[in-house]
UniProtKB/TrEMBL annotation, chain A:
It comes from the Bacteria. GO terms for biological process: DNA metabolic process. InterPro entries: Ribonucl_H (IPR013520), RNaseH-like_sf (IPR012337), RNaseH_sf (IPR036397). It comes from Aliikangiella coralliicola. This is DNA polymerase III subunit epsilon. Residues 55-229 form the Exonuclease domain. The keyword Protein biosynthesis does not apply. One of its GO terms (cellular component) is cytosol. The keyword Transit peptide does not apply. GO terms for molecular function: 3'-5' exonuclease activity; nucleic acid binding. Keywords: Exonuclease, Hydrolase, Nuclease.
UniProtKB/TrEMBL annotation, chain B:
The lineage of its organism: Bacteria, Pseudomonadati, Pseudomonadota, Gammaproteobacteria, Oceanospirillales. The keyword Repeat applies. The keyword Repeat applies. Residues 230-286 form the CBS domain. This is Cyclic nucleotide-binding/CBS domain-containing protein.
Length: 246, 628
């Protein structure tokens, strides 16, 4: 018995060197996470929820590179969607100082210089901010594998464990729409830029985390119009909600 | 990341009137926006609901409809809507619906009101051109809405060098020559002053005024040497100096003649009249010259000045009505002079006749050279066998001359050279009888030309008799008005602006807006129907509208709206043509979207909406759609 409880306690035990803020943000994140809080069967309940009733936040990261073992997040863009509306004042961009120096080819992509990232938050504060901003919300990302991998790597490094995530991926929504319209699906046509172009959304600068987060949020608003759904309501499951337990 | 790095911020700050704000206000504005998306077909503003936002279209397009469901305006990227309902306290009167999937940025109403109160440009932007609220809009259009501003006039005077203005060559005479001889020299040379020399050296000046004040008033002998009456403190001006400088010198010394010098040589004498001509009366000066022309060649040469006169009038800040009136006056003068030259060539007319003109020239609304529309009403005692040759020759001489002067032959052959339009009064009467009693498509086409007639030479009474009959016919054949109304709805203003569906191809592949067909003509057509309905005689569009108002056929706001709209459209068209002429290309009516500022686009849109509204009103009044 004792051993069993100890095991449980160990599993719940997080890095003891965390600051009080991070710890508090983490606890609140867990407590209010849409797919884990309160009673059983939340996952099913969440996927039955209406999109309009769900607090959403589009998220995009810029990283030092695409190698998940040693590359790091250097900036995060957050764009909340409330009641199908985006308020620019609620959007946020944060810069994180990575542990390694930036390589020049990457600076060319994301446009952030050493000086800018050096003035950024520490990785722990970055994670803490992520937890604070996304708590209780379903994340919207375009091709979410990158965001998921990098935030989980950061979480494991800082917290000692991954965090639960509920995600709607506009990349997957686009696939659904294309299948529904019997359009060919190519990886190129599913890029954020090309999808926006196809729908008639304006061109935004790519590779800035905030710009991409807003782009993704707007894409989701537009995609709702394209989903050929029988009634006016859209449920999260129809958007291919993905739940990652911790 | 700072907000101003966002593309959204760049977009907003490229939209009028936000582009005119300071960067602090721009940031505040950007932070206040909400981004919303509307699916094609969804309603953005529903009549009766309360609007809380000012909208800017980011992508897509929306449509505004009247309560009866008719579309009055379309809006696309960078267009703003919602301000009308905000100003009413939020109540939406006309439906706004997405006609494409549309991404919108919207600002809270508080921000809108704050901006209107604190920023005069924003206030002007939203209130400068308003339906039913006509204050001094016309002056607003001119001072703000167009690129050629009124400063040009004084700037022009400052820039113009006096050497370009002199008309009078310097006439020099020796100081010993008699006063009587000097008067004869002035008479033959036509000059109003003489420079008095001694051994080729200029001593002073004698002007026509001296003959009055010094010779006649003082009873001086006509044989006295001219040296006695000359002014010897000779004021001169250097050829490089500006016209303003010359004007100041004349005013300060109360003189009207100023010799112009260049490196000790006298180039000529600048007169006050030269300055006046330059300042505003160029068309009048030109008309004078036209009436003095003795040959066709001279007339052709004068007609080449018309584009320059047009540019100058536009630059000097004259409104479109005055400018077109002047340009039309020049056209009439050329036409009248040609008729006189023809009479000199072929002798006096065997029977009385009236030379009539039609179209924009008759309405006094001519801009740059257009085609000619004219005809001859002959006395009823006209005999084809006896008099036919004379009038055929006269018509050909005049119409060919007009063509040489740039008024090209009428493509529809509505010219005095066409025997059909060179007929005795009785025949003209039966033409109108036919058109009015049995309106057919062809007849309607002629009617729209021949309801705008002006007699510019000969027996004006012939045209008056014809008009009298026309009014009587219309009074007893009201059906004609229905047809005219239906015809007036043919050319509709574009609903949206500068999206592919409203621009027309012309010539090359460039897409442009036809300012004549889509802008000016719809109002001209409306005014014609209004005027005919109250048997009014004016043919100028603005005068017709005024008469329609005087006869209760048009409301006060209708009069103001349509007159303002007409003036604004004509003005934009004139500026466009003036710019083309300046660039050395042939002037036309095709306006390219990029020629307009955002503010002008906005006013243009409002103007089109006004026209559309009055077309709809006319349609329901005459139930024109039933016939069409």
């Amino acid at each position: 018995m004792n051993l069993f409880f100890k095991k449980i306690r160990n599993r719940n035990k997080i890095n003891e060197n965390l600051s009080a803020t991070t710890r508090s943000n983490y606890e609140q994140y867990l407590a209010s996470h849409p797919a884990t809080c309160n009673a059983n069967n939340h996952e099913e309940k969440l996927s039955e929820k209406e999109l309009g009733d769900t607090p959403l936040i589009a998220v995009d990261f810029e990283t030092t590179g695409l190698n998940e073992t040693y590359d790091e997040i250097i900036s995060m863009g957050f764009c909340p969607i409330v009641d199908n509306k985006i308020r620019l004042a609620d959007c946020l961009h944060i810069v994180i100082k990575p542990e390694q120096a930036l390589s020049s080819e990457n600076v060319a992509i994301h446009g952030l210089t050493d000086d800018q990232v050096n003035a950024g938050l520490s990785p722990e504060l970055g994670l803490s901010k992520f937890l604070e901003l996304t708590k209780g919300k379903v994340i919207v990302a375009h091709y979410h594998q990158i965001e998921r991998t990098f935030i989980q790597n950061l979480a494991k490094k800082i917290l000692g464990r991954p965090i639960p995530l509920s995600i709607i991926d506009t990349f997957e929504v686009a696939k659904t729409i294309k299948r529904q319209n019997q359009q060919p699906i190519t990886s190129n046509s599913l890029r954020l830029f090309n999808l926006r172009n196809e729908i008639g959304l304006p061109h935004y600068k790519a590779h800035n985390a905030l710009e991409d987060a807003i782009s993704t949020a707007e894409l989701l608003l537009a995609q709702q119009a394209l989903l050929d759904l029988p009634n006016e309501k859209i449920f999260l499951k129809q958007l291919g909600l993905i739940n990652y337990k911790k | 990341m700072e907000i101003e790095n966002l593309e959204i911020f760049q977009y907003l700050t490229n939209c009028e009137p936000i582009s005119q704000l300071d960067s602090k206000t721009q940031k505040k504005l950007a932070l206040s926006i909400e981004i919303v998306y509307f699916k094609r077909g969804s309603i953005i503003l529903q009549p009766g609901s309360i609007n809380q936002w000012l909208y800017i279209i980011r992508s897509g397009a929306v449509e505004r409809t009247q309560t009866d469901g008719s579309i009055v305006a379309q809006f696309a990227e960078k267009d703003i809507f919602g301000q009308a309902s905000l100003k009413r306290g939020g109540t939406v009167e006309r439906k706004i619906q997405a006609i494409e999937d549309t991404l919108l940025y919207r600002f809270p109403k508080e921000i809108f009101f704050e901006l209107i109160q604190t920023n005069s440009y924003v206030k002007f932007y939203f209130e400068g051109f308003q339906t039913n609220e006509q204050t001094d809009n016309q002056s607003n259009h001119q001072s703000n809405a167009v690129t050629l501003d009124s400063h040009v006039q004084s700037a022009d005077f400052n820039r113009t060098q006096v050497k370009t203005l002199i008309h009078e060559k310097a006439q020099t005479v020796d100081h010993k020559i008699s006063v009587a001889e000097c008067a004869r020299i002035m008479q033959t040379t036509g000059s109003t002053s003489l420079l008095i020399t001694q051994n080729e050296k200029v001593l002073g000046i004698v002007t026509d005024r001296a003959f009055c004040t010094k010779v006649v008033a003082q009873g001086l002998s006509h044989e006295s040497p001219v040296g006695l009456i000359m002014s010897d403190n000779l004021l001169t001006i250097d050829a490089q100096n500006s016209a303003s400088e010359a004007l100041l010198t004349m005013a300060r010394h109360n003189i009207r003649h100023l010799p112009v010098t260049s490196h000790n040589d006298i180039l000529g004498v600048l007169t006050a009249t030269d300055l006046i001509h330059r300042q505003s009366n160029n068309p009048i000066y030109l008309i004078n010259e036209i009436h003095k022309a003795k040959t066709l060649e001279q007339l052709v040469r004068h007609s080449r000045q018309i584009p320059k006169a047009l540019i100058q009038m536009v630059k000097n800040g004259h409104n479109a009505k005055d400018t077109s009136y002047s340009i039309s006056s020049i056209g009439r003068a050329i036409n009248q002079r040609l008729i006189k030259l023809a009479e000199e060539k072929f002798g006096p007319p065997p029977v009385k006749y009236a030379w009539i003109i039609a179209g924009s020239l008759a309405r006094n609304e001519q801009t740059i050279h257009t085609d000619q529309d004219n005809g001859l009403i002959l006395d009823d005692c006209y005999d084809e066998d006896k008099h036919g040759k004379y009038f055929r020759q006269l018509a050909h001489f005049v119409c060919d001359g007009l063509n040489d002067c740039g008024y090209i032959y009428c493509p529809g052959d509505v010219m005095a050279t066409n025997k059909k339009w060179r007929q005795p009064l009785s025949q003209w009467k039966s033409y109108f009888q036919q058109w009015i009693v049995k309106p057919e498509p062809k007849a309607l086409m002629y009617a729209s030309i021949f309801f705008d007639l002006r007699c510019i030479y000969g027996e004006t009474s012939f045209l008056m008799a014809l008009n009298k009959q026309v009014n009587q016919l219309i009074a007893s054949n009201k059906k004609m008005l229905n047809y005219m109304a239906s015809n007036a709805l043919h050319n509709t203003p574009p609903l949206g602006l500068f999206r592919s569906f409203v621009l027309e191809k012309h010539g090359s592949e460039e897409k442009a807006l036809n300012m004549k067909k889509r802008g000016v003509v719809p109002i001209t057509d409306l005014a014609r129907v209004y005027a005919l309905s109250c048997e009014a005689s004016p043919i100028n569009t603005q005068e017709r509208l005024q008469t329609a108002f005087d006869n209760n056929a048009l409301s006060q706001s209708g009069l103001m709206d349509l007159c303002d709209a007409f003036e604004f459209l004509s003005f934009i068209r004139l500026c466009h043509q003036a710019k083309q002429v300046e660039k050395g290309v042939d002037a036309n009516n095709y306006l390219l979207p990029e020629e307009l500022s955002s503010l002008e686009r906005r006013h243009l849109k409002d103007t089109f909406e006004i026209i559309r509204t009055y077309q709809k009103a006319l349609e329901s009044r005459y139930q024109a759609s039933l016939i069409a």
